[in-house]
Amino acid sequence: MLDLEDLQTFVEVADAGGVSPAARRLGVSKSIVSRRLIRVESELGVQLLARTTRGAALTEAGVTFREHAARVCAEIDVARETILPAGDLRGRLRIAAPLSFGPTHLAPVLADLASRHPLLHVHACYSDRFVDIVGEGFDCAVRVGYLSDSNLIARRVGPIHGRLVASPAYIREHGAPETPEGLVSHQALLQGTETWRFIDGDRTIAVHPQGRFKADNGTALAAAAVAGLGIAALPDFLTEKDLASGSLVPVMPQYPLPEAGLFVVRPPGQHPTRKIRALTELLIEHFG
């Protein structure tokens, strides 16, 4: 007879693309994952996964069975949640969170969530890269900034304010831009090839800044700004201490940045699970 835990492990291996990444996601050893897979294949009498040097690829039977297995696991999760006492949450909640914001601001909220729900396993992964939450098997992600269009479902849980900043030394040497258009003659500190937008009365001005220093992490850009390498557009939670100490100063405050947001993003589906709802409500409590 098929075991639910073995089924969930098979789905995890199929989604992660191998035994090792699935073991990391599940928080168990590779040998346990392999044993569970062998049990599922023995029970069904077919090979579901072809082991390769790169990991594991689904066989034709595996592709078909994965769809049914994932649906069964999801239905069981919903059924479990439905019959649990109102306050009880159990199972696992995998959250992708930004590295520049998560460890300092989000970690205490997740600790609070785990304290309130002793049966809930909270797994957080902190990274500033753009995480594919469906492909990488996350229940949800917490994102900071301006959300691009996607098929994911987003819930705004709080405002994020930001501004342009630079060091006093940079301003002394290069001056400060008076208008957004004036930024083209300055060194911008960037994450990639982003567009900066500014509010001018009832209109928005878009600028494509240029610069020689780039980093995929907001804390690193704040450090570069303090070092006098250029002008950065950063959220206040990254610059408030440096602004207070005078290591950074506001630039062009007469053209504010549009208000950004803090969002909980989840894959499309019927309804958010109680686990995600509990996280969302807690975040609104802290940041809303």
From TrEMBL:
Where exactly are the transmembrane stretches of this chain?
Answer: none
Q: Which CDD domains does this one have?
A: PBP2_CrgA_like (cd08422)
Keywords for this protein: DNA-binding, Transcription, Transcription regulation
Q: Which InterPro entries match?
A: LysR-type_TF_proteobact-type, LysR_HTH_N, LysR_subst-bd, WH-like_DNA-bd_sf, WH_DNA-bd_sf
For whether the record's keyword set contains Glycoprotein, the answer is no
Q: Which residues form the HTH lysR-type domain?
A: 2-59
Q: Does the keyword Cell wall biogenesis/degradation apply?
A: no
| MF terms in GO | DNA binding
Q: What family is this protein classified in?
A: Belongs to the LysR transcriptional regulatory family.
UniProt name for this protein = DNA-binding transcriptional LysR family regulator
Q: Which organism is it from?
A: Labrys wisconsinensis
